[in-house]
Design brief:
The protein is an alpha/beta fold. The protein is 29% helix and 24% strand. The protein has helices at residues 10-13, 16-34, 39-52, 89-92, 178-182, 185-188, 212-225, 260-274, 305-316, 321-327, 378-390, 412-416, 441-455; strands at 56-57, 69-74, 78-83, 94-100, 105-116, 119-127, 140-147, 153-158, 195-199, 235-241, 246-248, 254-257, 282-288, 329-332, 336-337, 359-362, 366-367, 395-397, 407-408, 421-426, 428-429, 437-440. The strands form 5 sheets. It has a 9-stranded mixed sheet with strand order 1-2-3-13-4-14-20-16-18, with helices on both faces. Strands 8-7-10-5-6-9 form a 6-stranded antiparallel sheet.
């Protein structure tokens, strides 16, 4: 029996077969990332994959039975994948895996378009925690929907395909930035200056017309999508980094991409549920929205929709929904801050998580004195540990940074508030919340194996 705890590096122990499996799995993940930059995109991608796996739409009025596979898309942005097992749902509850699929970005304001000095711009309002200076001088893509009168929806995606235009937020040249660089990082770029250039060609014709460039853009948008400026007031449009997920390093051991937080956890939980055909448990995978801004709203984890889904499952078998929730178990699959040697002072080495060392288990998150967190009971932490060890899962434990250096939260507390045992299990990320984040292929595969073990 090993008396000392030893963190294991997946790559150091991987043979050729395992390495091939890790790299192969990463290719599927990158494809998912590339089409899932927003929560709407992720919901569309999940629905497509679920249909291919034989899942059919869920109804709150139906009576489910063992073997049923259902999906529910809540308002285009919140996904529930359900597989009904054979065991007694009252006694065993539901095995739940939850990850969020929204990521920090730049949302367009309700009246976003304006022209100044020969350039047309979109005004933005940043969503989630960002370092504003990171969003200047990079190519941006436009994603989202515009709603026309009568309920017609126009899907927008510009900047992702070869030949598409991109959008751009300017920054000062170093020669004129003496005052800017003397400011604190948080003040060097103001939120109101995050305005993206969207055009520069003036309309021809009426010499008295004002905002000629804006007129050109509106005519182009109306011709292609059929909407007017006022329709932008009923839209959900955002700017995200343009471009695809890319391997990092000569060996391709890592992936840089936008939106690892938290699709690097959403994809493994979905794959694990799909691959658990023989599991006796009733399983649920959830893609949540609004985590980056507090999990409020009809598609966030503070909504009671998850209770409604569990209640429907319970009613199908004549079970008490309170008992079903009480006996359910959850993995809150969310990323954590991986130890970064370049910024070692904000970490505590003994209690950090490291890239290449497997799924990261966080008994608690929160900030300073464990504020605003689910602190998983020791009994449940041991339950999860035993599952992982029994299935040879690579895993590690850690906190999100050193005490008093900040911290962070996940959706775990909202699920625990329903009386469901919950613990955080995710992937260590470097440069979290940056336009391009960094993860290890070994860790995303380890999380898939952790979720698969949880589902068995």
């Amino acid at each position: 029996m090993e008396l000392k705890y030893k963190r294991r590096n997946v790559y150091e122990e991987a043979d050729g077969k395992r390495l091939e499996a890790i790299y192969s799995y990463a290719e599927g993940y990158k494809k998912f990332l590339d089409v899932s930059k927003t929560e709407r995109d992720a919901a569309y991608a999940a629905e497509k994959l679920a249909r291919e796996k034989g899942f059919t739409p869920f109804s709150f009025s139906e009576k489910l039975k063992a073997g049923d596979k259902r999906y529910f898309i809540n308002r285009h942005k919140n996904v529930f994948l359900i597989k009904v097992g054979t065991e007694d749902v009252a006694k065993e509850g539901v095995r739940i895996m939850v990850a969020h699929v929204d990521s920090p970005r730049l949302d367009l304001k309700p009246n976003p378009m304006y022209e100044e000095n020969g350039l047309c711009y979109f005004k933005t309002h940043y969503y989630g925690g960002i370092k504003k200076y990171q969003w200047t001088a990079i190519p941006l893509a436009l994603h989202g929907v515009v709603m026309l009168r009568g309920g017609e929806r126009r899907e927008i995606c510009v900047g992702e395909e070869e030949g598409d235009p991109v959008f751009y937020i300017t920054d000062l040249l170093p020669h004129l930035a003496q005052e800017q660089v003397a400011k604190p990082m948080s003040k060097a770029i103001e939120g109101e200056s995050l305005n993206a250039v969207i055009g520069g060609l003036p309309a021809v014709g009426d010499e008295d017309e004002k905002e000629k460039v804006k007129s050109t853009i509106l005519k182009l948008l109306n011709k292609k999508y059929g909407f007017t400026e006022v329709d932008l007031q009923c839209s959900e449009l955002c700017l995200v980094p343009a471009g695809k997920a890319r391997d990092v390093g000569f060996d391709g051991a890592l992936i840089s991409a936008y939106g690892h937080d938290d699709k690097v956890c959403a994809y493994p939980e979905m794959c694990a549920l799909f691959d658990s055909e023989q599991s006796p448990h009733t399983l649920m995978a959830v893609f949540a929205d609004k985590e980056e801004v507090g999990s409020d709203g009809t598609t966030g984890m503070q909504s009671r929709v998850i209770c409604d889904v569990i209640d429907t499952i319970a009613a199908s078998f004549g079970a008490n929904p309170i008992e079903v929730r009480y006996n359910s178990k959850c993995i809150s699959a969310d990323v954590t801050a991986g130890y970064d040697p370049a910024y070692s002072s904000v970490f505590e080495k003994r209690n950090s998580t490291y890239v290449h060392c497997g799924a990261a288990v966080s008994k608690y998150t929160g900030a300073r004195g464990k504020s605003s967190t689910n602190d998983a009971p020791a009994e449940y932490a041991a339950f999860v540990r035993d599952i992982f060890d029994d299935n040879n899962v690579y895993w590690q434990v850690g906190e999100l940074g050193a005490v008093d250096n900040g911290g962070g939260g996940t959706v775990a507390k909202y699920i625990a508030n329903l009386g469901i045992d919950t613990i955080d299990v995710g992937v260590p990320v470097l440069s979290m919340h940056a336009p391009y984040e960094l993860i290890s292929k070994a860790d995303v595969f380890a999380l898939y194996e952790a979720c698969l073990a949880f589902c068995k």
